[in-house]
Amino acid sequence: MTIDLQRITAIDVHTHAQVPRTGPPDPITTEILDAASKHFRTDVPRPNADEVAEYYRSRNMAAVIFCVDNEANTGEVPVSNDGCSTSRTPTTTCSFRSSASIPIAASAR
Question: What domain of life does the UniProt record list for this protein's source (predicted)?
């Protein structure tokens, strides 16, 4: 699938999938996001790649989705490249490193 540049209104070049599609998030991820919610006095979004893709797709936007990889600094286990890829929804995907995947959430409409 290609991106129809005539239909999209913007491209967000840096978004994150905070949690995996299936199974529980890493406990350190939960701890970090809970602390952020407390600090900012709001619920910090915890989207998976499908939810990020749908958010942008519903707005006729494209998005580059990265996993959050803090493992070396915090011990937090990142969402895998496969978990970050939006293969369940129409996308264009390019992987360039073992630690990063760049799925582009393209509008299917």
Answer: Bacteria
